[in-house]
Please model this.
Amino acid sequence: MSTKASWRRSLLNAVGGVLSVAGIVYVAFRMKGYWASVDVAALDRSLWVWCAVLVPLGVGMNALLALAWRDLLLSQGVPTRRRLALALYGRSQLAKYVPGNIFHFASRQAMGMSEGLPAAPLARSVPLELGLICFAAALCMPLIVPSLVPRIGAWLSVVGLGLTITVGVLVVRRFLSAVAGRALLLHVGYLLASGAMFVSLVRASSLPLGTDACFIVAGAYVAAWLAGLVTPGAPAGMGVRELVLIALLGALVSQPVLLLALVLTRMVGIVADGITWVIALLIRPHHPKDRDHAHSLH
Model:
């Protein structure tokens, strides 16, 4: 590798690292705020145990997002090793907590370029990823229909969910590519797992929910997640998701339980993101010779 290429790679790594460190600082403040908002003494110990059980699920959900991003790069003509995608995605995710909602993308762009990935496809993957995950969230909306039209049962909404996902994948495969369709499925899996996590924390907060209500709550969480994502300037959807959840579920779940479950979901997510970051740091993306070869191609 030439001196110029080595200097460029070091600079890009430094940019990505600075953004990740900024994310760690914001995460620390965010976690402190969440902890202060919870009456720890009043919560049953089993609830904390359940939160700990959910953390590995959160780490696995992050892996789904990383693999979806890898598929999107492949759809742009950039085959990427699985472990490289996991490493880059995991190392950049903490920067999403920095206000602005763009710094994890900037961090990933910088670190990806430092590993020899071409700049243009990396940049194109950002709007593609955002558009696809928003589309995936929209496909999950049949789950909340029973809360708006009570005559439609929850199981019918599940059938609707299956149909919309099937049609959505076919549309993406038709107009984008087969690997983009696979990325859409991974995004849907991530969102449904997120909804299931939230439902489990609502139930763990001493609120029994029937099967029908569980589907509605999961769908409402995905809707709230989407609202938080598309709202400018709301880091990790802060404030927006609470408002949407209260609007959609106020008649079904008490506000204190909703807010507690959401705070716990955020705490689980932050811990999972932190563990993902540590794992990503430990991943050796590829053999140094492979990286030098990639640089020689660009």
